[in-house]
Design a protein that fits this description.
Layout (H helix, E strand, L loop, with lengths): L3 E5 L4 H12 L3 E6 L2 H15 L4 E5 L5 H15 L4 E4 L14 H28 L5 E7 L10 H21 L5 E7 L6 H5 L1 H8 L6 H7 L9 H12 L10 E4 L7
Parallel strand pairs: 1-2, 1-4, 2-3, 4-5, 5-6, 6-7
Helix pairs in contact: 1-2, 1-9, 3-4, 4-5
Amino acid sequence: MKQVAVIIGGGQTLGEFLCNGIADAGYHVVVADLNIDNANKVAEAINQKHGVGTAKGFVVDATNEESVMQLAQDVDSVFKRVDLMVYSAGVAKASPITDFTLSDFELSVNVNLTGYFLCAREFAKLMIKYNIKGRIIQINSKSGKVGSKHNSGYSAAKFGGVGLTQSLALDLAEYGITVNSLMLGNLLKSPMFQSLLPQYAKKLGIPESQVEQVYIDKVPLKRGCDYQDVLNLLLFYASDKASYCTGQSINITGGQVMF
């Protein structure tokens, strides 16, 4: 029986890329996203490539407990197992702390941290139910290890994700379920990073056209983080080869962060 992977935030950008890569690796894929049209579009493309029934789109609001619980029930009804849950939902709002609104801070915490907690909890239950030594992987950020200027809400939530990952790993070790976080460097070509260019240009006092190079220059390997870099590490930590690794926060930063 094929393994089943659930990708939260799988309807676009990095999440979409991971869905396709995981399907290529032989998994059935649950594409879960707040935008059901996006989720269905990604699932349809996977099914055209790998066969009908390989993927299915589902709607979920990861910040809403009832929505996450319903997703887990629906996945259980359709696939009867879960081997891998990837939490790839995220949001970033950039502003100096003196202008940072409470609503933006709460949004960052809800999407980047609370949603991770809810999804990990519900899909861990399914792994335990079916006696599966599964994998839970959070897509985190280097901002979860070092503070990020003008990104207090995002960084606070991502730091929280590291602690949550370690705690989940301790809770679930007895079931053989591993939990790890991938700490991404700057995805310079991602829509999220591109949307922040005006704020970053203002923060740095430079034209928007120069922002990417500033961030590249901070990286010892002199390039940004690519989607493929993330998929490479994700597939390893999802595999049996990483069965002795849990509670870890793995850097994918080109050497920018080394602890």
